Amino acid sequence: MERAGCRLSGPEEMGFRFVKYFLFAVAAFGLWSLIAAALGNYLIVSRPLDGADAIIVLAGGREYEERALEAARLFRQGVSTKIVLTNDGVEAGWDDVARRNLLFVERARSLLLANGVPEESIEIVPGVIRDGSEVGTVVEANAVSSFCKDQGYTRIMLVTSAYHTRRALEVYVSIPKPDSPFDAVGISHPPLSKDEISYTFWWLSLKKWRLVPGEYLKMLVSA
Fold first, then answer.
1. What is the distance between the alpha carbons of residues 6 and 36, in angstroms, rounded to a whole number?
2. DSSP 81
């Protein structure tokens, strides 16, 4: 190999190639980091809403705890005097006090009560929110919309996990009239825990490798 009129020796040529490939790898990694950060953070939206008729906690299986705690926080802040839960029909495991397997919606309700939400402020949408074998955001939104129409709730604050906020908000605001009773839809999500990787660096988390690409796949399917 020649460069600037001279021929590189074997070791020099290998060193030159190493530097070239290393710089390429650094550039590729930098580009991937920027794209991945944009993809992760794009999923997350927040829309404050004061004076909501109800705080709607979207079903999330094992994510019920973070969502219920966020709903309780909003309740204490005075965002609304009502919290609405949906039932995904999924069992959350054995409870020694109840002597049976509790549903996630039951655990969410108990957690709200334990965090200062009065029993009369908690409502549960009738029926099980399922789309075949899985909980579907669109199916859940239709059930919530029907329930809110019956209750006269026109201003709602959605609570879900961060990665789910954009898709959830788009589903609820896109419900056509007259099916939708909503005049205003806000959305909130729990803060990241201290040991949780941010969505800027989601690709460093095995859990978020399931969440982030999966959320984009669901967006494409529902588009």
1. 42
2. S
